[in-house]
Fold:
Amino acid sequence: MSRTVTLATCQPPMPAKGRDVDAVVATAFDQLREAADRGATIACIPEYLNIIGQMPVQAAERIPHAPAFIDQIRDLADTLGIAVIAPVLIYDDGLLRNRAFVIDADGQIVGHYDKTHLVATESSDWGIVPGTSYPVFDLGWGTIGVMICYDGCFPEPARILALAGAEVIFFPSLQRGYTERELDLQVRARAFDNYTHIVRSSYGTPVDEVWRPGTAVGKSCIGAPDGTLLSDLGRFTGVATAVVDLDAPMLGERFHGGDEGPLRAMRLADRHPETYGPLTDVQGG
Structure:
């Protein structure tokens, strides 16, 4: 049995002089078309796409149009026949959320995930309200989950999604504060810890522009369950794809000297959650 799917990640440019948020969005939409042309089953676009590069006062005019923006992506997904992970800043019942919509290949909204781990400015400057749960979504060909940007700095979101059955975790990000090495470690660790595919999407530098330290390092990439990066865009804009078989288990020996079988199932079965109370009982200091 085989469930072969093509995962894709899009890396549009950051806003810059002569390139505003609308130009970034146009490039992201072109990259979704390219992903579809390359046979992608599902593609991820980066965090904050509807307001990227704008401060709260500027973004205030755009955020109310987020539902219409999502409708554009739904129409594009339906036309292209590709599922899309679409992150936006959006109001829901008067609460501002950093939300990623899961849109299927027919353009239907399957569900959404609200970022749980907010950075300081999201709370203090933007007034974003954090999410409280980690849903997974059945897309027919497989089960997926989503974590957003700062969520990836904590092992718990990816682990919860894996325990809930996520076979692929999509990871839309901004994260300008990390180095390429740190992001590389982060993606590989989350994938290997859970024997789960990780698809990260962020912003990069156009290939005809000079990358300079202090600007977005990109690192949109696709990680395999063994921590290998199957595809990596590095610093520059573009589309990366990887063909994976979700029914091909990563086989190995139960560490150390035990049975042989699917490592994901064995690793998750060997957990001892009865000893994990300090994860929630202790706040840390």
Remarks:
- The chain is about 25% helix and 25% strand.
- Residues 4-248 form a domain with the Nitrilase/N-carbamoyl-D-aminoacid amidohydrolase fold (CATH 3.60.110.10).
- The mean pLDDT is 94.
- Residues 21 and 247 are 39 Å apart (CA to CA).
